[in-house]
Design goal:
mainly alpha, globular, transmembrane, membrane, AI-2E family transporter, AI-2E-like, transmembrane helix
């Protein structure tokens, strides 16, 4: 390595660290923007073809398409979130006023039977509800600071998604050309990352939504109130494989049993174990493994690690980063082992030639004599 290369690598390391320090407070939003842009890019290409005949240039068609997708995505995301927050706030208020539809008496009777002690759950539940209400909605200065940070992050996500949708293909092309790898290896790596990421994102999200909808249908059949609210909650929790939806339907089945609705409790438990769990054990591996080749256990590790490191965004980013690592390993395995296999006959042929010359050298003295 000459001085020029060493100097450039030093500059790259220094400015890479500086840029990371600058973007670190909004790293989760940057990663979220990359995920959104990646998911929306196929729709972007289709909408550009739709808008192109009605716009004076392709650039304008790309901009109109990107804005349309961003607005539609905001509506699709914001409305369910607002519904969940509103429903949660109203439920917490009802519980704090003692007006909840939850039957406390059967639960207290069951606990008293197991513990041989008189237990009053109403007051602790009210206190816990008041604490939750204050935590989520009572700390006005903290809530304003959080909303300010989230607003800046959302604005950053919107701008990044727009420019990634418009110039994302050019960015991928530039990164491929700037890569120090050979063009064939770079193309293979990009294809592997695309396949793995698509499987991790779309397969993971598809399985989560389907599982939550099926579980919500079970709630509707047994008469659980606020089915839409619990279904949306299960959509979020279903991103945790194996345990996500179980956190909701298992306590619901236990509650039905305690309050005396034994048949509904048995039905919901059997429905959850057989039908809902079927998604985790069969559908999710098929959908994800077909593209991403990731075991559900690996997905679970990525989700927990991502949530611990990046918060809510880690639900999506954690499995993707593991998928990218798998894609890099797979590219190395297929590409460079193929080169080694192709080089093996050459080594064999050269070895055979050397061996033949050795035989000639051994026989030549005998021929002379």
């Amino acid at each position: 390595m000459n001085r020029g290369h060493a100097f450039l690598l030093s500059l790259f390391a220094v400015f890479g660290v500086v840029v990371f320090v600058i973007v670190r407070p909004f790293l989760e939003y940057i990663l979220l923007a990359l995920v959104f842009a990646y998911v929306l890019l196929p729709l972007q290409n289709r909408l550009v073809a739709v808008f192109r005949p009605y716009t004076p240039g392709r650039r304008i068609a790309e901009s109109v398409s990107a804005i349309t997708l961003i607005v539609a995505s905001l509506v699709a995301i914001v409305l369910p979130v607002l519904y969940v927050l509103t429903a949660l706030r109203e439920d917490l208020r009802e519980i704090s006023r003692g007006e909840s539809s939850i039957q406390m008496a059967p639960i207290e009777a069951q606990l008293a039977e197991f513990t041989d002690a008189t237990i009053d759950l109403e007051q602790p539940v009210i206190l816990a509800t008041d604490w939750l209400f204050t935590l989520f909605f009572g700390d006005v200065p903290g809530l304003i600071a959080m909303l300010l940070h989230v607003s800046l992050g959302v604005a950053l996500v919107l701008f990044l998604v727009f420019y990634l949708l418009v110039d994302g293909s050019s960015l991928v092309t530039w990164l491929t050309e700037a890569s120090p790898l050979e063009p064939a290896v770079s193309a293979t790596l990009v294809a592997q990352i695309d396949r793995t990421t698509w499987g991790a994102v779309i397969g993971h999200a598809f399985a989560a939504v389907v599982q939550a909808l099926i579980a919500g249908l079970g709630f509707y059949l047994v008469g659980i109130p606020n089915v839409v609210f619990w279904t949306i909650v299960m959509v979020i929790l279903a991103f945790l494989p194996l345990i996500g939806v179980f956190i909701v339907w298992a306590p619901a089945a236990g509650y039905l049993y305690i309050v005396g609705e034994t048949s509904s409790a048995i039905f919901l438990a059997a429905y959850g174990l057989v039908v809902v769990s079927f998604i985790d054990y069969y559908v999710r591996p098929i959908v994800i493994d077909k593209q991403a080749r990731l075991n559900p256990a690996v997905i679970l590790v990525g989700v927990f690690g991502g949530v611990y490191t990046l918060g809510f965004v880690g639900l999506f980013v954690g499995p993707i980063l593991i998928g990218v690592l798998v894609a890099i390993i797979e590219t190395f395995r297929t590409q460079y082992r193929m080169e080694e296999s192709a080089a093996e006959p050459e080594r064999t042929e050269s070895g055979a030639v050397v061996e033949s010359f050795d035989e000639v050298a051994d026989e030549s003295p005998q021929t002379t004599r």
